[in-house]
Amino acid sequence: MYKKPLILILVAFLSACNLFAQYDLNHFYYMGRQSLIDGKYPQAIESFNILSKLDSTMYEAYFFRGIAKYNLGDFTGAQRDFDRTLHFNPIYTPAYHYRAITLSRIGKYDLALKDLEEAVDLRPSYTGLYFSRGVTYFLSQQFDKAIRDFNMFIRKEPDESDAYLNRGACYLFTGDTLRAMNDYNKAIDLDRYDPEGYVRRSRVYGMQGRVDDAIEDLNTAIRLDSTNTFAYFNRALLKYEQKNIREALDDLNRVLTDEPGNALTLYNRALILAQVGDYRGALDDYDRVININPDNVLAYYNRASVLIQLGLYRDAMDDYSKAINLYPDFAQAYMNRAYVKNMLGQFTSSKQDYKIAQQKVAEYKAQTRDSAGRMAFADTTRKYDRLLSLDADFAKKGFENELVQYRDVDIRLKPLFKFVASDHRESTSYLTRKYEDAQLDNFLASSPVTMRFAAVKDEPLSSPAVLRSGIDARLKKDRSDINLFAKALLETEAKQFNSAMLCYDEAIRLSPENAYYYINRGVLQADMIDFISSIENNVQVLTLDNTKTARTRVQDQVTRTYDYTPALHDMSRAAEIDPESPYIHYNLGNLYCLSGDLPESIAQYTKAIEVAPSIGEAYYNRGLVLIYLQDKGKGCIDLSVAGELGMEDAYAVIKKYCTNDETDK
């Protein structure tokens, strides 16, 4: 696997063709390809979007857009684009190849292998296919077949160091450390400036007990790449093994500087901090681990021991109970919970736990052949406070290993569409416009101040005082509804919400059938709620927690419910006046979501999309709500479309929540 890393109004078919003819397809094709080369994937998607609009049968546009999505972590979207490519060109080998790579990333190994077989049949001389198939066999744990494919690749490409690194990983998984070492040595000989070879060889040295040699290799890797967190992590394990606790902690801290949400590193640091008596620090790290992975049984188990040291016996008992709920055969957890219950004076319950623990141990001893499986947690001789490594998982160069990758992502609904005062007007071309609305264009042009209509937060103006002075002068001469509307925009920008509301009220009295006035008054009422709640540190938003589920989280201990009814009333009145406006339906989607009516929220986003399929914000927000409701398959598809339509932060959400086992449901 090579990893370098509107609805348009058609007056007539003929006029549309004439319009398209004005655009140079080669220009957009070149721009898209160049953006791919430069790693500017969102810009590449934008260029290929235009190409696909100009010629909906151009399979190359879908193919390259799929590659851009893949590099942004949108595997669902990439697969759909490769599907489109093959629909228009069923013998296009690269599409089978890259679709296979994408399928392997989402765990569909059988389908990936099927695509690779098809690609090999079409182009048996294309050596890169054997490399990718080897990776797929590796990921599906068919190591012998992976080795066979890497052998075929190496025969044709004997100087490609990555192939030796990956074949070495296969040997390592099969227990053949000698051949793994030979392959890692060969990879280093071929490319002495690639730190990956040294990282992998160090793991073999470590398995052989050659700790000094292993540390020296890791030192070399870090000299070559001071940001290689795998090297720091592995060196921390070896330093710990040498009883060099301070340097081990330094290396773990270095990993967490670059990857503050790396759960495995947090877990290991917590163990060490507990061992050196820093119980509060250990407790903080365990809390973060459990926040990231609430099913981590060992984190609960070891956090309980820290809580005991702090005298928090009831909390410790709760953690042992959570560990037992996750693994009912965890005899040692029963033993320890029995101790805690005894300390709390719960003697009868303590005896029951002790009795259960003994029963689990007896069952374990009778089934020692299964000691590596589920019953292993009944082994009271094992230590559950040892540092953990990823073993050979760290040997997955080119496999996009994400076992320890985690980034906090601020996930919120895209804001409401509204009119805002601006220093510039947006100019959009025929191909990039989201929705043709002559009435909206005329209203924008009629305003005495420059304004935009978009889903944006208020933006600072370069000379607000001059604008206010001008509008105040106009209002003295003509207190018209449009002048009052402009005044309301400027007052909103200055956070003078009450004054803005009075202006909207008067404008609506003068022109009660203007939907735009109701839109902005409704948005203002919602914004006022958000502003008040932010002052109280009690902001309620639709957000997704680190368990890869979703919930409405209130960011404070005190929960208050805010009433969006006035905002909903105004937005509903706007919908009565202009029932075909996609922006009004979008805004209603947001307001219903904030009010807790998620089914109606989805219905409103869907109406917006039906009218204007190019409004990315609607797909983005509907995707979040669907994920919240546990419909990740549809939600991730919506987020993919949102990314395709220019919502770049959709890809951060996709990477975090669109996991292998959910996106295809």
Question: What percent of residues adopt helix (DSSP H or I)?
Answer: 55-70%
Low-confidence parts lasting 5 or more residues at pLDDT below 50?
A: 1-22, 369-374, 391-410, 428-432, 534-560, 661-665
Q: Which class do the helix and strand fractions yield?
A: mainly alpha
Order of adjacent strands in the largest pleated sheet: 1-2
Strand content: under 5%
- Report the mean per-residue pLDDT as an integer: 81
The major β-sheet equals:
2 strands, antiparallel
How many extended strands?
Answer: 4
C-alpha-based Rg, rounded: 30 Å
- Total count of helical runs of at least 4 residues: 32
Overall, the morphology is globular
N-to-C CA distance: 26 Å
Task: Describe it.
The protein has 665 residues and is mostly helical. 65% of the residues lie in helices and 3% in strands. It contains 32 helices and four strands. It has helices at 13-21, 25-37, 41-54, 59-71, 75-88, 93-105, 109-122, 128-139, 143-156, 161-173, 177-190, 195-207, 211-224, 229-241, 245-258, 263-275, 279-292, 297-309, 313-326, 331-343, 347-366, 438-446, 464-477, 481-493, 497-510, 515-535, 565-577, 582-594, 598-611, 616-628, 632-644, 650-657; strands spanning 418-421, 451-454, 540-544, 550-554. The strands form two sheets. A two-stranded antiparallel ribbon has the order 1-2. Strands 3-4 form a two-stranded antiparallel sheet. The longest helix is centred in the last third of the chain and has 21 residues, at 515-535.
What characteristics describe this protein?
globular, mainly alpha, disordered N terminus, 665 residues, 32 helices, two-stranded antiparallel ribbon
